Amino acid sequence: DDDIFSSAFCENSEKLINVHLFALAAKYYSLSNLGVCTPLEDVLEALKGDNEGATGIKPDEFMNNKKSHEVQVMSELVANIANYCGIKQVIDIGSGKGYLSSFLSMQYNLKVYGIDSSSSNTNGARERNRKLKKHWRAYQSRATENLKSQSLEKANDRPEESDIKCKTIKELLYNANSLQNQDQVIIHDVVPSCGFTEMATPAPSTESEADSVTWTQSHETKLSEEVLAILNVLPADAAEDFSSSHYNCGELCEEEKVQRKMTSLKAKARKSSESNLYFPLTSCITAETELSDLITDLEDCMMVGLHTCGDLAANTLRIFTAKPEIKAVCSVGCCYHLLSEQFENQEECHDQAWGFPMCQYLKDKGWCCGRNARMSACLALERVAVGQMLPTESLFYRAVLQVIIEEIYGVTKSDRHVGKTFSKSSSFIDYVRRSLKKLELDDSKLPDSCIMDYYEKYKHRMNELEAFNMLKVVLAPCIEVLILLDRLCYLKEQENIAWSGLVKLFDPVKSPRCYAVIALKNQSC
Asked: Which residues form the signal peptide (predicted)?
């Protein structure tokens, strides 16, 4: 309890005296231990989604392993929420290079607006999406050609059963949804589902039809897999249109029937590819942003954000609660150090929409984290735990640089940033000079010998710095808990929310900011 954990610090000096107890306390108050998260499997089950997602092409063919993992998991959840709410429009806030937006559009046939403040990001996303669509169409074309050749081979092998095959294919198309639930298969070179939605499946009307389906499942499993695979590239109405078409199976030879079927499927696949819509937009989103000014055809939709930076995560939730058109939200935040805090500088600015705190409970208490704590919240405990150690040398360089600019230049605060200078530097001297230029400080007054004197003076304290940063890593999950629970409590305070929760989406080793804030509005709202 709190009394036990408080003994980790000296009562008089308030210094840390029991590191082990400190680590236990940090673990006790971490999100994974508090029992407030909703398992992803439970959410998908409640939405009646398929936890295995669509079969076929994987996003790692177009992006790195980390981004592929994030996009695949989050897109499945978003698609299930959209389907549950009966909506087809998604607004991706802070869409960046458009990885999530493109995949939601092409894989799940959703109309996606990706909004990012950087024009270079949106322009890059637009070009990347254009190239991605070319790859996507190539996969579709290859799939249909493979199916055509395989079906013709089967036709030559069993010509006497052509009438049964024709009837079976039509029934497979008509009953695609039930068969797809029975046999989820991955066919190489076949594209995944692009929005195949549920469809009423009538029972066979005669005994002979039922026998035909049974014969198909036992003797033509591969054919059914191929038909289902090509169905996966079509929109929902493809199966309906095809099943209502009337072919005279007895009057056409098998090759002609296959050619007609493939021509129809190709047309549907092309139409589906062209209907996949993704629109990158450039705009800076704030709590006061009117989405209807940016999106002229705004309709019932949901908002998503994959690693929305700083205040953008908080503003996403505010827009969601304020706009009746937005029926759901799924937001994964990051960059906690960039959050604005209402009580950090004790400034009176009641009209500003602060990044922290959001909920009334913490506002009433005047709660403040501070930049150092928020910086700590960005650290990745799980990565450190599996051996991905902290960049101690670069942290040491930065710490000594701080001493230099304070003692030599008298600068204690600056709006400029050093950035990723360490990776570009050949030595500590090079690092200092590059950093001073970025900070617009005159490095001519600082000889190399003086720079190295500072390095030698503090070199023996590098282990001390590493130990200090390890303590920050241990504490990181506790600070993240405070920020995430603040956002969840904000949603719980709203009257128009039907359900809200925290869900662990990603593997924290692959993606340390792995928790999503999810909410659905009341149906009447």
From this structure: none
Are residues 135 and 23 part of one domain? yes
Q: Smallest Cα–Cα separation from 92: which of 82, 220, 525, 38?
A: 82
Beta-carbon contacts of residue 231 (< 8 Å; ≥ 6 apart): 173, 176, 180, 196, 238, 239
CB of 154 closer than 8 Å to CB of 147? no
427 and 282 in a common domain: no
Q: Which tokens belong to 366?
A: 């005047």
Q: DSSP character for 202?
A: P
Distances (CA, A) of 271 to 156, 209, 238: 31, 31, 10
Within a domain: 505: yes
Residue 511 sits in the same domain as residue 395: no
Element (H, E) at 26: helix 19-28
Evaluate whether residue 96 is within a structural domain: yes
Q: Looking at residue 257, what is its pLDDT?
A: 61
Residue 357 inside a domain? The answer is yes
pLDDT band at 525; cut points 50, 70, 90: low
Token digits of residue 400: 């000594």
Same domain flag for 137 and 280: yes
Mean pLDDT (whole number) for 276-293? 86
Strand 301-309 and strand 278-282: pairing? unpaired
pTM equals 0.70
Query: Do the domain assignments include residue 467?
Result: no
Asked if 510 and 65 count as a contact pair (C-beta separation under 8 A), the reply is yes
Q: Are residues 121 and 85 in the same domain?
A: yes
- Alpha carbons within 13 A on the beta-carbon side of 123: 3
Per-residue pLDDT band for 1 (boundaries 50, 70, 90) equals low
Number of domains in the chain: 2
| Same domain flag for 445 and 371 | no
295, 366: one domain? yes
Q: For residue 41, what are the CA distances in angstroms to 44, 138, 513? A: 5, 34, 19
**Among candidate residues 330, 312, 310, 324, the one with its CA nearest the CA of residue 115:** 312
For 61-116, what is each residue's pLDDT tens digit? 667 889 999 999 999 999 999 999 999 999 999 999 889 998 999 889 999 999 98
Question: What pLDDT, on a 0 to 100 scale, did the predictor assign at position 94?
Answer: 93
DSSP code, position 422: G
Query: How far is residue 466's CA from residue 471's CA, in Å, rounded to a whole number?
Result: 9
Provide the domain limits for residue 406: 388-459
Mean pLDDT of the chain: 78
Maximum Cα–Cα distance across the chain? 97
CATH code (residue 112) = 3.40.50.150
Residues 427 and 505 in one domain: no
Considering just the CA atoms, what is the radius of gyration of the chain in Å? 29
Long-range own/partner contacts, residues 202-210 (CB < 8 A, 24 or more apart): 204/171, 209/167, 209/171
Nearest to 57 by CA among 226, 197, 188: 188
Q: How confident is the model at residue 188, as a pLDDT?
A: 30
